[in-house]
Design brief:
The two termini are 38 Å apart. The longest helix is centred in the last third of the chain and has 16 residues. 33% of the residues lie in helices and 30% in strands. By secondary structure, the chain is of the alpha/beta class. It folds into two domains: 222 residues, P-loop containing nucleotide triphosphate hydrolases (Rossmann fold); 67 residues, no CATH class. The strands form three sheets. The chain has a six-stranded mixed beta sheet with strand order 6-7-8-3-9-10, sandwiched between helices. Helix 3 crosses helix 4 and helix 4 crosses helix 5. The model has no long low-confidence stretch (mean pLDDT 91).
Length: 291
């Protein structure tokens, strides 16, 4: 199973380009789609799910051409989708919502629906509250219910958009663990601006900035993009130079700055990079190439 994207461009009214000539191939397993707000992630997801048409370029999902109505229809039967803002019906119970979505997905046999719903409620840890109204669910419970609805019908492709935004740390960990169990023989695309989610869940990563794809490869390879460029610098004030400050830590001896850049100050010391550092290094390189 493969998603193949070639020369994909999306231009909105006013000549605003959301995607610029994107080439990307996504295979089985979990791929993290990274980028700041406005980078083009949501536009790409909408095209992949068939809810938006590109200006130019091609998208083939498991061999189906998304430019055709027949292709989009076939892909929808393979697809489980959790959008950033999932419209839930607060007066329904969790079980009733899943039953309704299952009917929409063409699961007509009542016994089959019940069996799938029971299994999914257990899988996402909601079996004890399946008969409660959704209006009583916490934000994390609603996100887990969203994952459950996306898994109805055993889809071969799962796309989730900013699934942990707004969740507390415990729910984020629970959700990441759940997502990590979904890979295997499926294609799972996790779109997020939270690097920690990708670091813990995704062996592959793609980075978008200003509509352009600036990295696609292993997550470990993304970390490696900052090899030799990551340093710690102790200073009494914000340092200046050809580098980016990734974070700042207050210590007993003053402020310690974690910086990424090709020309570190001589008084800094090198450290092993993290995914945050690799992401910053890629964005720096992208900005430099467009100057």
């Amino acid at each position: 199973m493969t998603i193949t994207i070639r020369n994909l461009t999306k231009v909105y009214r006013g000549n605003a380009a959301a995607l610029r000539d994107v080439d990307l191939t996504i295979t089985e397993g979990m791929t993290g789609l990274l980028g700041t707000n406005g980078a083009g992630k949501t536009t790409l997801i909408r095209i992949l799910t068939g809810t938006m048409h590109p200006t130019s370029g091609t998208v083939h999902v498991c061999g189906y051409d998304m430019a055709t109505a027949a292709g989009r229809s076939a892909v929808k039967r393979l697809l489980g989708y959790l959008p950033q803002e999932l419209a839930l019906y607060p007066d329904l119970t969790g079980r009733e919502l899943l039953d309704y979505v299952a009917l929409l997905k063409g699961i007509d046999d009542k016994r089959t629906r019940r069996s799938q719903i029971d299994a999914l409620l257990a899988r996402v840890g909601l079996e004890a509250v399946g008969t409660q109204r959704i209006s009583r669910y916490s934000g994390g419970m609603k996100r887990r219910l969203g994952i459950a609805q996306s898994l109805l019908g055993d889809p071969k492709i799962i796309i989730v958009d900013e699934p942990t935004a707004g969740l507390d740390p415990e729910e984020r960990i629970r959700f990441r663990t759940l997502l990590g169990q979904l890979g295997g023989d499926r294609i799972v695309v996790l779109s997020t601006h939270i690097l920690d989610d990708v670091a813990h869940s995704c062996p592959m990563a793609a980075v978008l900035t200003e509509g352009s794809l600036v990295y696609h490869g292993t997550t470990a390879g993304l970390v490696g993009m900052a090899e030799g460029q990551t340093h710690l610098l102790r200073a009494s004030a914000q340092p200046d130079g050809d580098f980016t400050v990734v974070n700042v830590t207050s210590t007993a001896d003053g402020m310690e700055y974690r910086i990424v850049g090709p020309v570190p100050p001589p008084e800094s010391r090198p450290v092993a990079p993290t995914l945050d550092d690799g992401y910053v290094a890629v964005l720096r390189a992208a900005r430099t190439s467009t100057l």
